[in-house]
From TrEMBL:
It comes from Pseudoalteromonas ulvae. The gene is djlA. Its main location: membrane. This is Co-chaperone protein DjlA. It is a single-pass type III membrane protein. The chain crosses the membrane at residues 6-26. NCBIfam families: PRK09430.1 (NF006948).
Length: 276
């Protein structure tokens, strides 16, 4: 907007009405270029359209919980483990009152036989096109729900693969995301057990912990310190809460992004303390 205003003003001062017209056009091109660059960078869309961001947040919220419900029912019925996991996820997001009811309604909608899984994700991708980090977080959240009982059934894996494909992720990248989450899950458990020397020796803990930490960052055991740091910085950028909220992540889900950032940070710090 400011490009058009300033362009018109300066154009008028230097070239009267003809200059104003030319200045308006050049200002419009300047505004459009800036917005495209910000969109491509994946942030600060709220500076251009706060209402649009709010709509995207509502869509993300509904789609997130409805797809959760659909995946949870992929085995024929929703288990108590999945119901409990959904409740704990809502607790983590500090959902209560109307917000919690909306999440529960969306979860139930996803369980319904009439739920349009493919169409829902196609619309989701259309509205979040170009916001790669947000789409990736969405898949990670769905994996977290499916993996709540410690393993993936074939039907759960198939639906997750379909969701990833509909959102534009290749099979290779889906496998990468899945491996990272499984490592994140195990690394978290490993850290909780690291103080229990009766279960395993300190050496075993360090070896196992290092492997999981490397997988959390998505790097191999032969990765150099520079490569590990590069992977760490990339993942931290992808999961930055403020950046994701600017792209349309509901503020309730900031806690999820924060936790993932903390896990990535912990894996990186672990590798610095336990070099090869």
């Amino acid at each position: 907007m400011w490009g058009k205003v300033l362009g018109t003003l300066f154009g008028f001062l230097f070239g009267r009405w003809l200059g104003a017209i030319l200045g308006f056009y050049l200002g419009h091109m300047f505004d459009r270029s800036i917005k495209q660059n910000f969109d491509k960078a994946g942030g600060f869309q709220s500076l251009f359209s706060g209402e649009e961001v709010s709509e995207r947040q509502a869509l993300f919220f509904y789609t997130c919980f409805s797809v959760m419900g659909h995946i949870a029912k992929s085995n024929g019925r929703v288990s108590e483990t999945h119901i409990k996991a959904a409740g704990l996820f809502m607790d983590e997001m500090q959902l209560s009152g109307e917000s919690r009811q909306e999440a529960q309604d969306a979860f139930r909608a996803g369980k319904d036989n009439e739920f349009t899984f493919k169409e829902t994700l196609q619309e989701f991708k259309r509205r979040f096109s170009g916001r790669y980090d947000l789409l990736q977080l969405f898949i990670e959240i769905q994996i977290q729900m499916a993996f709540c009982d410690g393993h993936l059934s074939e039907s759960e894996r198939e639906l997750l693969q379909q969701a990833a494909k509909l959102l534009g992720f290749s099979q290779t990248h889906f496998n990468f995301i899945l491996k990272r989450y499984q490592a994140e899950f195990k690394f978290s458990q490993q850290r909780q057990q690291s103080g229990d020397k009766q279960r395993q020796s300190t050496t075993q803990t360090s070896v196992m912990g290092r492997k999981q930490a490397l997988d959390v960052l998505g790097v191999s055991d032969s990765a150099s310190a520079a490569e590990i740091k590069k992977a760490y910085r990339k993942l931290m950028s992808q999961h930055h809460p403020d950046k994701l909220v600017s792209q349309g992540l509901p503020e309730h889900l900031m806690e999820v992004a924060k936790r993932k950032s903390q896990d990535i940070q912990a894996a990186y710090e672990y590798l610095k303390k336990h070099p090869a």
